[in-house]
Amino acid sequence: xxxxxxxxxxxxxxxxxxxxxxxxxxxxxxxxxxxxxxxxxxxxxxxxxxxxxxxxxxxxxxxxxxxxxxxxxxxxxxxxxxxxxxxxxxxxxxxxxxxxxxxxxxxxxxxxxxxxxxxxxxxxxxxxxxxxxxxxxxxxxxxxxxxxxxxxxxxxxxxxxxxxxxxxxxxxxxxxxxxxxxxxxxxxxxxxxxxxxxxxxxxxxxxxxxxxxxxxxxxxxxxxxxxxxxxxxxxxxxxxxxxxxxxxxxxxxxxxxxxxxxxxxxxxxxxxxxxxxxxxxxxxxxxxxxxxxxxxxxxxxxxxxxxxxxxxxxxxxxxxxxxxxxxxxxxxxxxxxxxxxxxxxxxxxxxxxxxxxxxxxxxxxxxxxxxxxxxxxxxxxxxxxxxxxxxxxxxxxxxxxxxxxxxxxxxxxxxxxxxxxxxxxxxxxxxxxxxxxxxxxxxxxxxxxxxxxxxxxxxxxxxxxxxxxxxxxxxxxxxxxxxxxxxxxxxxxxxxxxxxxxxxxxxxxxxxxxxxxxxxxxxxxxxxxxxxxxxxxxxxxxxxxxxxxxxxxxxxxxxxxxxxxxxxxxxxxxxxxxxxxxxxxxxxxxxxxxxxxxxxxxxxxxxxxxxxxxxxxxxxxxxxxxxxxxxxxxxxxxxxxxxxxxxxxxxxxxxxxxxxxxxxxxxxxxxxxxxxxxxxxxxxxxxxxxxxxxxxxxxxxxxxxxxxxxxxxxxxxxxxxxxxxxxxxxxxxxxxxxxxxxxxxxxxxxxxxxxxxxxxxxxxxxxxxxxxxxxxxxxxxxxxxx
Length: 786
Hints:
The protein is built from 32 helices and 34 strands. The protein is α/β, with parallel strands linked by helices and 786 residues long.
């Protein structure tokens, strides 16, 4: 079929990535402006008819699941517009009419594409053909699917060991594709299954498994609505999980108090204007946070420890009013040691570590004491610290001492970022799945899964760097831009014999390649998926363990695309041969058969095909929530005991956190504005407290390089540099700064990881600011008001 040429999106004509207009932060989220932005992005990418048809099916029972965040739908009937601004942007990016064809690759060499900004790459549109970059080639060229599969199989079969290959997974992958992907990888003979969880909520899973026996949250949407008190730490729902705000609004209407713990005053935690309500359009909306705790980076563990001491003191004053001693006696282990350690916490140290005063600390403690139903929510602001596991354990301790696990309106709520990132883990995408899962997999399929743990993301990069991994296969995502230590990661990938990217759109991981590289274009959530048995459905799991269906309806961008399931099945048939006991051909033709197999292997997925077709799907079991059972080594919920840690700011330095802009989801950059923080038209900015700007001898609008500093293991200091950022005065805590990723990923050493979880520590990077000498701005650093 002839392919119509789509002109390249020349968005970088006159674009200066260093330029930005600074308008000052906003103090409310959503509202009419969010609706207008959503419609504009839809019309720009999809056109009016496609926009209307697509948004009408987004997050609906008979529609498709949002490819953005993993926030759950509320049970019961759905609103007409069951999506947020960033969900609309995510759909517009996937359902775009723009195309990246073989002619596009013929016009642009890999070297030319490598020089383009991430934003330019993402705006070119959907991939239409499988593409090959052979050794010595300067341009990708089209390749037949069978040839691509043969290349992959030949390279994998030539390795000395299956452990010389890495199989990465992004959270966008469906349950069906994820289950088959891990089945392929384990049939091949390795557990090298790094995934995006390794870089975001791995610390949550590690801490919660130790404390309550399962690495997932213990609440439902109904629990949040019914809570008396909701503490939200290290999370920016206004940008990252906007639909959460409508649930918080309902909780507020029922009398809940909300405590926001965050270094930055994020708009979504200040005020929410629901555009589907009159007061969200013509009135001032709803104030979200009753208490804003502006904590210093890395001070959260000290905050929770200090609150624990104050709760013990309140119990002393009024015995029986604070501690749930029956719950502690019946269901918990380690309480005596926790009590001893917590009573010894020095509150002056807590004030120093957190940057908040004693009065606010006592006010927050009082809110927790008066609550009969408390939920703790958090995201990467807690998980991406060196002491992240300890911090989450300390937060969970506060709930355990008050019996706030396994009762309505109370529990833990790690808010996952990427749609179906939690489902991928349930389906076996983990480098260290437990024996029960592997044994069930082997029994169901007649294979022998390896038992040696595989590589996570950080160890996978180390393996490529050190020559111990020669093939990289990525199922979705943008590995290069999602990972730390950019220079090391890029060199590691370039050292591979083969890199394979299974993708919907062009991104930087396609231009940072091995000796041979393949791009395999796949269907997205919005696309119709027709196989031998007819139109297929996929399933996903949200942040609260609800499993439901997703039904794409759009005509795929090209007849040359394959579904993720079809790609995995054909890779397996080519690699493992026709005699392999897994019925890959049948699975490719009917996803119901895959779900039947999942039902046989995955705990809680019994009768999968029937239950997932219920209007809202079904909820996976959660022993702490369902029956106050804790499947830990002690058989009880364990109080976490760790020495107190926080992040100190060296003299003349700042501690930097990396974050998303409002025009971004993970590594996908939708635009160059960060409306809520008052940045327009640029991304190379660093937010710094005005007092720090003055003390460092800088000025509003100065241009600086960011230089990170880390001990090199020999008594010296190792440095990394990213160049030319605009200094923006912002109400950060003194000593703390913030800037966007992936631009700041080069500052994070590969070995700068969280204890136990091995998650990159992206929220605590010691930096210094160095003025760019002789730099002249053209139109950068403009200020248009407040």
